Amino acid sequence: MVSNNSEHRATLRQWQLFILTVEKGSILAASAAANTDAAVVSREITKLEHLLQEPLLERSRSGVRPTWLGAQKYKEAIKILHDINTAFSETENTSIRSSTIRLAVPGALTGLIAKPLAEFEKLQSSNHTRIEINSYQNINDIQPENFDLIVCLQTLPNVRMIAYDIASISYGIFASPDFIAQNKRISDPTQLEKLPLIHSKSEKVLLQGPFQSITITVEPQIRINSNEAMISAAVEGLGIALRIPLWAAEPLAKNGKLRHLLPNWHIPNAPVWLLKHPGRKISALEKLIQFLRKTGTFHPTLTKTD
Q1: Which of the listed residues 49, 70, 89 is the one where a domain comes to its end?
Q2: Residue 136: which domain range?
Q3: Residue 244 and residue 118 share a domain
Q4: How many structural domains are present in the chain?
Q5: β-strand partners of 270
């Protein structure tokens, strides 16, 4: 009996479906992104697991996540596919690749940076420049080599890329008028420790006043790691939202749904960095970098640094 060697080798399609499944967090979401049936995705990944004789995914009702081996194979597959795409782009698809800028942006900044990016695309319309925006929550969850530019907030990752300091974000403390009316007048930062707070985690938060700085201990009653969700909770009167970007809160502060508490006390600004691969050469890339650095501000309440 002659065996079919192709049955004992993984295919490019299998690795592509595996990568999609890891990134999307579920087989169903991966099948939708790949425009195929969930059964096909599941079958192809199962074939991979049989070839490797170990599971690549931990499956549950809430979705999937990579096993230790799956995480290692995911990194390897990303690199291999990147090398393949690079090879094709240098031959058959150079013109298309050179006109597309792949950008990774923190989810918290996606709404802020979308407008200047759209303006840049209009200015470059004659050059057919297209910008692909990919949102991420944790920079450790993305593969830097897959992007031409990466926007990151506050802390620079340990990657070999050129960093540009393009702006800094100002933060404030906000609550709804109803919440403020139901509580005594808040005039001192230490009062916050005794009130229901909305924040991402338990921590000590530095507040800088006109003549002194103070650190308060934050034990949030409601823990939320999304700007939009924190703002919604504050509007509903569920507590005081700490560290809300002024640009995000400004529309609701103008229409009276939120009020800025302790405006003379400031949470330290967070720098916004733009990272670029040193060897990446795309015609419009340098223009985009200069555009973002010279735009002034992305928003009136986003403070630009020199």
Answers
A1: 89
A2: 96-168+270-303
A3: no
A4: 3
A5: 169
**pLDDT, tens digit, for every residue of 104-123?**
888 878 777 877 888 887 77
Would you call 233 exposed, middle or buried from its count of C-beta atoms within 10 A (0-12, 13-18, 19+)?
buried
Question: Where do we find the tokens 């993984």?
Answer: 10
What's the chain's average pLDDT? 82
User: Could you give the CA distance from residue 229 to residue 15 in angstroms, rounded to a whole number?
Assistant: 35
Residue 249, number of CB atoms within 10 A of its CB: 25
- Of 112-116, 211-215, 291-295, where does the model show the most confidence? 211-215
Q: Kindly report the CATH number assigned to the domain that includes residue 138.
A: 3.40.190.10
Model pTM score: 0.59
Which residues contact residue 169 at a Cβ distance below 8 angstroms, ignoring those fewer than 6 apart?
A: 153, 245, 246, 247, 269, 270, 272, 302, 303
| Chain CA centroid to CA 108, Å | 6
